[in-house]
Write a structure and sequence with these properties.
Blueprint lengths: L6 H4 L1 H16 L4 H15 L2 H13 L4 H5 L12 H14 L7 H10 L2 H23 L6
């Protein structure tokens, strides 16, 4: 198999721009658990093993239980997530699967639970992890 490019080596400016988004996400008021739930769920949908591996480890360090991590793929059928987390997960799924658009119901539910700034931060976190997933998958980054 041919090896694929390493973006930071061949396009460092582009990689720095992505790191700028990540730095912004790190500076937001999003709770660390919300950030990791977003990152894990989007990465599961996108099939990015590298990111799933990284963010489940990060979630564990924050005290997220194995049970909550394992049940993320079936969060609607599990009673382990708050209303806020469910709204974030629904929005994560619809933005990640954007060809189906973001339904008014999902958006308005999130808008009821979060102020405008927090909602903007959630959306930007979802967009950022989706971009990282696409970089990881396109360049064949592997979980180790």
């Amino acid at each position: 198999m041919n090896s694929r490019i390493v973006i930071p080596q061949v396009a460092p400016e582009a990689y720095q721009a992505m790191l700028g988004l990540e730095k912004y996400i790190a500076s937001t008021s999003l709770s660390p658990v919300h950030k990791e739930l977003i990152k894990i769920r989007a990465s599961q949908i996108n099939g990015c093993a590298y990111c799933i591996n990284m963010h489940t480890a990060d979630a564990r360090k924050l005290g997220v239980t194995e049970q909550r991590i394992y049940l993320l793929t079936a969060w609607r059928e599990a009673d382990f997530y708050s209303d806020e987390e469910k709204a974030i997960l629904a929005l994560t799924e619809e933005i990640t699967l954007i060809s189906n658009h973001v339904s008014e119901e999902v958006y308005q539910n999130a808008a009821k639970l979060f102020d405008k700034k927090y909602l903007a931060e959630i959306i930007m976190a979802i967009i950022t992890i989706n971009a990282w997933n696409r970089i990881g998958i396109a360049t064949d980054m592997r979980a180790e």
